[in-house]
Amino acid sequence: MNDYLFDTPTIRENCEAFYGLYHVTEDRVRQMCELKLIHTRAVAQNCLEIADGLGLSDYDRDMAWVIGQLHDFARFGQAVVTHSLDDSAQFNHAQLGARLLFTHGLIRDIIPDYDQICPEDQRVMEMAVLHHSDLQLPDDLNARERLFCRIIREADQLDIFRTIVESGWEINYGCTRAELLAGEISPAIEAAFYRHTLADYSMRFFPADFHMAHIALCFGLESASARQRAAEQGYLQGMMEIRFTRPDVQKRYAGMKAEVEAFLREDQ
Predict the structure, then answer these.
(1) What is the distance between the alpha carbons of residues 264 and 267, in angstroms, rounded to a whole number?
(2) What is the DSSP string of the chain?
(3) Could you give the CA distance from residue 223 to residue 228 in angstroms, rounded to a whole number?
(4) What is the pLDDT of residues 10-33, one digit of tens each?
(5) Are 221 and 154 in contact (CB under 8 A)?
(6) 80-89, 131-140, 187-196, 213-222: range with lowest mean pLDDT
(7) Torsions phi, psi of 147, nearest 5?
(8) 111-150 per-position pLDDT tens digit
(9) From CA 181, how far away is CA 135, in angstroms rounded?
(10) Residue 256, CB half-sphere, CA atoms under 13 Å: how many?
(11) Measuring CA to CA, which residue among 251, 167, 238, 253 is closest to residue 206?
């Protein structure tokens, strides 16, 4: 049995101090950093609730919470450097966050007694941060790694729906609602809805693709409880309450929306 206990008050304080460094930024960049701070806190809380629902031990639920606190570690620097929260071939926030924390050792600034955590769970935390935004998880994860990857991915996806609805389109997509709805949807993004899979972010070419790809995150909710929670929260439905200007695009979107609704009804 693991005798280590996470000092969650200290970890919380250290995370807040690190993320607070980005309060010096201004205007839209500061808005993005504040958005990500709220998101980080919410995802950590989601991790706790998912862990509770799974009946995990106090140690495991604390580790899930820690992973939630760390999952977007590199997002703040991304906002400052690129003035965007969009990952691309040049910037992968999950990979950079894992590298900064676990390869370059910044994790010890967050968890002072990190070396007392067993190596297996050090790797669990690293894999969870590294793979939390992957299109699909790698096959070589062991059962424990896969469990915590699933927890952080579902916790993250659930709060992204809230973030988009509450913070608005311009801060998330860099365009107005009218601009997005006047445009096109890429066929590759549309195809993900009919496969019931996450959308490949590298295939986003139009403003609407970014919004559609976020809606498609619902297909990554593996557990029935997470899907039920998404339906009950109403944020996902709020994201889908849109109408495209072009009739042909609206018709295609209606089919995509129907796929989401059918997917969520599977548990009823």
Answers:
(1) 7
(2) -------HHHHHHHHHHHHHGGGG--HHHHHHHHHHHHHHHHHHHHHHHHHHHTT--HHHHHHHHHHHHHTTTTHHHHHHHHS----BTTB-HHHHHHIIIIIS-THHHH-TTGGGS-HHHHHHHHHHHHHTT-SS--TT--HHHHHHHHHHHHHHHHHHHHHHHHH-HHHHHSS-HHHHHTS---HHHHHHHHHT----GGG--SHHHHHHHHHGGGGG--SHHHHHHHHHH-HHHHHH----SSHHHHHHHHHHHHHHHHHHHTT-
(3) 9
(4) 999 999 999 989 888 778 899 899
(5) yes
(6) 80-89
(7) -60, -50
(8) 999 999 999 999 999 999 999 999 899 999 999 999 999 9
(9) 25
(10) 36
(11) 253
Domains and CATH numbers, the chain: 8-160 (1.10.3210), 171-265 (no CATH)
**Count of residues making up the chain:** 268
Q: Which of 66, 258, 68, 248 is nearest to 158 (CA)?
A: 68
Q: What is the pLDDT of residues 28-75, one digit of tens each?
A: 899 899 999 999 999 999 999 999 999 999 999 999 999 999 999 999
Token pair, residue 253, equals 């979107």
CA–CA gap between residue 149 and residue 108 (Å, rounded): 21
Tokens at 117, concatenated: 């955590």
Task: Return the HEC string of 18-73.
Answer: HHHHHHHCCHHHHHHHHHHHHHHHHHHHHHHHHHHHCCCCHHHHHHHHHHHHHCCC
